[in-house]
Amino acid sequence: MEARGQAVAPSLIGQAGIIDDFGLSLGVLLRAYHAMVASVLEHVPQGPRGYQTLAAVARGNQPSQLALAGCLGIDRTVMTYLIDDLVAAGLVERQLNPADRRQRKIVATPRGISILEDAERAVREAEDRLLGALDRDQRADFRALLRRAACAVGDVGDVGAAGIPCAD
Amino acid sequence: MEARGQAVAPSLIGQAGIIDDFGLSLGVLLRAYHAMVASVLEHVPQGPRGYQTLAAVARGNQPSQLALAGCLGIDRTVMTYLIDDLVAAGLVERQLNPADRRQRKIVATPRGISILEDAERAVREAEDRLLGALDRDQRADFRALLRRAACAVGDVGDVGAAGIPCAD
DNA sequence: TATTGTTATACTCTATAACTATA
DNA sequence: TATAGTTATAGAGTATAACAATA
After folding, report:
1. The predicted structure's pLDDT at residue B153
2. Could you tell me the pTM of the whole model?
3. Residue B67: its chain A contacts at CB < 8 A?
4. Which of B1, B8, B130, B164 has the fewest CB atoms in 10 Å of its CB?
5. DSSP for A68-135?
6. Burial (CB count <10 Å: 0-12, 13-18, 19+), residue A18
7. Which nucleotides of C are covered by protein (CB under 7 A)?
């Protein structure tokens, strides 16, 4: 509802040497990703973030909410609300760790697993639509390069020494 | 200051089949980008966003704040504050368009151009550090694929018909 | 009547601090 | 004393609505 006349130009990204900014492209792509997967994640609370958390719960093996928050790069206070919503939706459960009763181990319910599997398919399709300008090989290349780059930056900083190395 | 013991794992991204999420990788990379360039853009108000706006002002030729906002994908109300700060820093000026006195054409000052040129070099170096896990050819590939993908999503929706086609 | 720019307001997301319980 | 989790509060960032000036 914004670009009506000819006054408002479309994105300048990629327009032959006018503006070709890496950060802007990254931001545009992430925003478009959020918009696209949001419409596909109606059964998952908190959209992409809830989906990523559910996937980390089901596919990973994190012993606590804190560990979960750490590996997703979000705050532990945010994780509380996130888990609250996932529990309310019946997708995960909080289990007390008998060995250390301060920790809550988050496990996916059967329903959570089922929803996740559907969501993974739908998200994958949305991603391919998002990368529609690239052909199959280019999409695969882009995914691989993105993964490698993100993996490397995820390892910098305070982790590293004690950290599990990024299996490339 | 978070991962001390062995309880908190580093990012799960890329860890051999545990979690390999496109959206998570994109988010991680953008956050790291923001952190990296922020430390490099001390002379540019509003960090990456101010930098992108300054670049759009200097490199593009947008007739109004609204056009500027449109091509950067931000709200016109945000653009007002952004321009306010860039003007206060002496990097751009508001010029009234005599042909349509509702519009303000934003132009870069000599100081703005100078700051921009320095910033562009510094940002480029920061980007290469960010993509340090990729070699030279891979970085070039990644930049090109990212640009093409972002360009395509930037063109969808309300623009398109009236829009300038994305010069690929 | 519609559009540009501004201002004020509200809403969302995230970060900080304080608290409880466990160790 | 330190850590896991929760809650409350505050701060960014962003979106919505109302307004003045101009077309």
Report:
1. 84
2. 0.86
3. 7-9
4. B1
5. HHHHHT--HHHHHHHHHHHHHTTSEEEEE-TTSTT-EEEEE-HHHHHHHHHHHHHHHHHHHHHTTTS-
6. middle
7. 3-8, 14-17, 21-23
